[in-house]
Every structure is written in structure tokens, then in C-alpha cells.
Predict the structure of Uroporphyrinogen-III synthase.
Amino acid sequence: LSHPECYGGLVFTSPRALEAIKICLKENSKNEAWSKSLKQRWNTKPAYVVGKATASLVEEIGLSPQGEKSGNAEKLAEYICSREKPNSSALLFPCGALKREVLPTALREKGIPLESLTVYHTAQHTDLQESLSSYFSQQGIPASVVFFSPSGVKFCLQHIQKLLGDFINNIKFAAIGPTTAEAMEAAGIPVSCTAESPTPQDLAAGIQRALHVQNC
């Protein structure tokens, strides 16, 4: 972040990457440098994002997001490729350890340099199983279960399957987007609906349609 002159812009595909950036900027010396000059220098370059949640966090650190309507990595890659020239300065991509290769591969094929930097790791919450068991015992069997990421499927699904038992065939499973839906299908879970875009409104509309079919 201290060397905007080395990069052609920024790429963010998750709110967690922005949380990592904000932790960096909390240090007094870096915060001052960011406010005095770095923010303005980065603002002369694009900050590409997926989704509104990530865009709002980009705005919080004083940058102007682009591409928020893309909704997923595939569409963001198309958007970036339409705006960037091959062999220009690399785009800095702070990302998670579990990032997919869709965006890096698409940019590489177009000759657009991307420098990936792992800034967070995804891990299972220590209280996950206990929290799920507590929910089911207090609230009963839900009408629908929504997954927001492939890692959510990876960490939660086995526990949910045990808790649902034979009721699993009565549940409508929803996905926030196509990437999560693919992970659900790979795990053998039927996807009742996928949000048209990763927003609360589109997700709610998809769940409502899925439950209406079931007359819930």
C-alpha cells in the first residue's frame, strides 16, 4: 500500500480483504501516510470490486470502487479486461488463501499482470458445531438453509446434514451466487435457488420463490 507507483490499481473480491487493509491502516504511522498522500495517489488508479458489500468498505477507506455490479469473479474479470491494457503495471490483489483461480487465469490470458497477496486465511469457527446444534434445538428444523461461500459449505454442511437427518429432503437450499451453488452441487446438495446478484434483496426474492413452490 505504501508504493502505489508500482501498481496500476487494486482488486478486491471479498470484504475480508478490506478488513485486512483496515487493520494495516490502524497503525498511526501508516494511517497518517494514507491520509496525507497515499489515498490520493491510489485514487488516481482504479479499485475494482465484486459486490456492494466490498464496494462500501472500499469507500470507507476513501477510495472509489469500480465494477461492483459484476457480482462474481468471472464477470469482474471481463470488466477489468475491457478497461485494462496488456502488459501495463500490475494490479494488486489482496486475497484469501482459498481464492479461486478464475480471475487470475482470465487476466493472465489477456496479458494483464496481477500480483496476488494472501492477507487472510479462512478457518472453521471453534464454536461452529455447538452453535448449529443450539440453533436446531431451540428453533427446530428451518424451511431453508442459505450458503454464502464454498467454505461455508465445506465447514457447515456435514453438521447440518446430521442435524437434519431424514428431514433434509424437505429443506430448500439456497446459494448467494454461482460459485457457492457449484460447491453445493459438488457436495450432492440440490440447489433450490441462486440469487440473481449477491444482494439481500435478490437472495430474499429467490428464497421466497423457492418456498412458495413448496407452499411454505
In short: The chain has a mean pLDDT of 92. The domain at 127-213 is CATH 3.40.50.10090 (Rossmann fold). The two ends are 50 Å apart (CA to CA). The beta strands are 9-12, 47-49, 65-66, 91-96, 114-120, 144-147, 172-175, 193-194.
